[in-house]
Amino acid sequence: MKLVLVTFLLVSLILSPSLFEVSMAGSCSSKCKTRCSKAGVKARCLKYCGICCKKCKCVPSGTYGNKHECPCYRDLKNSKGKPKCP
């Protein structure tokens, strides 16, 4: 019985980081869907929001503004020095 329990714990510890990444990806997807719901070019908005969310682990609430909620998201810049995240 102890061997089964130890095996279960080891397997769950090994799998937990990958499960966490999947849950974060789902979280980014739903948050970016909300963020980009009113965007003129949704595909581009979703692409860059997804990139920013994966890097920063957060997305500001609403469809525009509120970037103070996520400083990393706010401070990412593209190669021209303009804000990268929608």
From TrEMBL:
Annotated InterPro entries: GASA (IPR003854)
Alphabetical UniProt keywords: Gibberellin signaling pathway, Signal
Listed GO biological process terms: gibberellic acid mediated signaling pathway
Ranges in coiled-coil conformation: none
Pfam families: GASA (PF02704)
Leader sequence residues: 1-25
Keyword Coiled coil: no
Superkingdom per UniProt: Eukaryota
Family: Belongs to the GASA family.
Protein name per UniProt: Gibberellin-regulated protein 10
